[in-house]
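Record filed below.
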Amino acid sequence: MSSSALPRPSVDEPEPGSADGRLCSGVLGTSDIVFMVMAAAAPMGVVVMLMPMAFAFGNGGGVPGTYLAAIGAMLLFAVGYVRIIPFVQNAGAFYAYIAASVGRTWGLAAAYVAAFSYFALSASTLAALAYFCELFFKRLTGVELHWSVWACGALALVAWLSYHRITLAAKVLGIALAAEVALILLLDFAIITHTGWQAFDLRAFTPDRVIAPGLGVAAIYAFNGVLGVEGTAIYQEEARRPEVSVPRATYIAVVLVGLFYVFTAWCLTSAAGAQQVSSLAKSDPGAFVINQTLAHLGTWGADVVSLLVLTSAFAAVLGLFNNSARYLYALGRDGVLPRAIAHTHPRHKSPHIAGLVLTVAVLLVVAVSVVAQLNPLTNVATALVGLGSVGLMALLSLTALTIPIFFARRRMFSLAFTLAPAVGGLVIAVATVLAFLNYSMLTGVDSVVINRLPYLLLALAAFGAGQALWLRRRNPALYLRIASTRIEEGELAKTMTNVS
C-alpha cells in the first residue's frame, strides 16, 4: 500500500533555503499552536464586529444555536482532518490534502485561492485596525494621524515578528488572546450576575429559533468566526511531536473557540432579550457590544474593549500574515513559485523571503488606497474581508469532502475516516453557497464591483489548475513536486496505528 495516491518526486536538487531549506522544526507546542489559531480568529473582533451583525440581520435569538451548529460541523470536519494530517506533512495544509485526495491540479488551484484568501483577510484586517487606531488615538490625544501611518507602523511590526523565530509571534499572540478572552468572559459573567440564570432561555438552541428567517445570514457570520482552524496543520512542520500536538491543538482550538462564541452569544441574547436582541443590534451594530459593556461593566470596561479590539485586530493580522507566508513558502519549495520564496532565515528558520513578498504586497494595497482616497473601513476592509472569508469557506468544504476520498482509496472506511468529514463538509458547503448568495451581507455595501469580487477566486483557481496541467505536459519532474512533502513509507504503519 502506498502512503499517498501521488508518487513521490524523484528530484535530486537540494531544497531551497538555508542549510536544509526547512522551517524551524520542533519549536511549537500544543499551546503555541492553539494561540496562533485562536488569535487569528480574533475573538474580540468577532464578538464586537461580527456577532452583532448576526443578531441584526440573522435569526436574532437563534444565533447561539447557529454558532453551536457551526461548531458541530467543524468538529465533524476535524475528526477526519486530524487523521489525514500525519499522512501528508506540508505547510500548505489544505493545498496538500486536496492534492493528495483528488490530484495535483485541484491542489494547486486550491493553493492559490488559500494564499490569496489569507492575504486578503490580512490586508482587510490591517485596514480596519488602522482606521480604528486613528479614531482611538484622536479621541485619546486630540491629535489626528492619517490611517496610513498606523497601517504602515502595524505592518512593520508584523513583518518584524514574522521575520523572527515563530515562537516570538506565538508569545505575542498568546498575551493578546488571553487579555481579550478574559475581558469578554468578565462581561459574560457580569451579565449572568445582573440578569440571573432565569434569563437564560434554552430555546435559543431549539430548531424553531435556529431554523428561522435569517438563518443563512447568521450561518455566514458563525462560520466566519471559526475560519482559521487550518492553522493547526500549517504549523505542523514547526511543531514538537506533530502527530500528537497538531490533532490535539485542532480539537482544543475548535472546542474552545466554539464554546466561547456560543456562551457569549447566549449571554448577549439573554442580556438584550431574545425578542429584542435583533432590533437592538440592528439600530447600531457597531455599538451593540460596547453598550452592553457600559451597562454591565461601566465606562472602564467599554474603554478597555475599545483598546482590546485593536490588539485583537493586530493579533489577527499577524496570524493571517503568517498563514499566507507559509503557503507562499510551500509553493516556492515545490517549485511552482520562484524558489527564492522558499528560502528560510539561517538563524530563525522563518520564511522571511515569503514574508518580505507579502509585506510589499500589503504595502501596495495601502499605497493604492491612499492614492485613490479610499476609506480604509468602508472601501478597503469591506472589499477584502468577504473575498477572503468566502475563499476559505470554499476551501474548508472542499477539503472536508475530499478527505473521505483520500481514505476510501486506501479502503479505510469508518465514521472518523469517511462519514464524519463528509457530513461536516456538506454542512460547510451549504454555508459557503449561502455566503455567495448573501455576499453583500459580508461586505456590508451595495457596490456591484465589490460584490462581484468572488469571481476573482474562480480566476485564481483556474490559473492554478492551468499551471498544473501545463507543468504536467512540459515539466513532469516539477509537476511531481507539487504538494509532495510526505512521510516516508516506513512510517506509514505507525501513522495508521496512531490515527485509527
Summary: The chain has one domain: 30-477.
